[in-house]
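Q: What would this chain look like folded?
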Amino acid sequence: MGLRAVDLHEVHPQFTSPGAAENKILKLQDVGLYYKKQAIVEHINLSAGIGEIIGVVGHNGAGKTTLSRTLCGLHKEASGQFLWNEKPQDRKERLHRSYMVMQDVNFELFADSVEAECSFGIRNPDKSLIETTMDSLGLLPYRTHHPNTLSGGQKQRVAVAVSMICGKELLVFDEPTSGLDFDSMEQVALLIQKLSVMGKVIFVVTHDYEFVCRTCSRVLHIDHGEQCDDFPLVPDNEENLKKLFSI
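A: My prediction, written as C-alpha cells:
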C-alpha cells in the first residue's frame, strides 16, 4: 500500500500543460446556480478547452458539487448561458453530452455484471466498442463480475467505461480520491490523464492537494457564493494553490 506524503510542503504541482487552452469548446457566461430560488453561486464566467483538467476547489457547501451537477444537466435551477462550440446548450443537451462520476459510484451502477453495465440502457450496443473499452481500462478480467464485488477504483473505471461507450465529451468527477492511499490515487490520476489525451473536457471536484498537483492543469476556486479565482497551474501560481489548501 503506497503512503501519502507526510509533509504537503514537499508536494509540488507537476505543471501539466494546459493542453488545448486556445481551443475553448465550453463556455459559461454569467451563470447562476440556485436552490429553491435561493442563490448558491452567481456570476460564473469560465471557458474550458479540449483536454483540460480543471480542479474545482473550495470549502464544503461552497457550491462545487452543484456547479458540477449543473454542467452535466442534473441540476435544474440555473441562469446564464452554457455554450458548447459557440452553440447554446439547454439542460437536456448538457445531460446528453456529459457524464458525472459520483463520489459514491454505487448510485450509478445498475446491472449484474461489468459487461452488462457497459451496455445498460443502450439501444443496439456496439459489442466491439464495449470489448475495446473494457480492455483499455483493464476491465476484461472482470467482465462477468457483479459491480458490487469490485473495488472502489474498479467501480470508477466501470463508470468511466460507460461514459466512453456513450461518447460523452464532458466528464465530471466528484471527490474521486476521497480516502484513497497513494497507489490508488495515482491510478485515478493516470486514468483522468488518459481521458484528457482522448480529448475529453474534465472537471474534478476535490479537497486533495496532492491529487491536484499530480493531475490538474487549472484550478477553479469557488467560495462564499462566487467564483473567487481561476488560474492555470504554472510555476508562478504554486503559492496561490498552497494558500487555497492552507499549506
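The mean pLDDT is 89.
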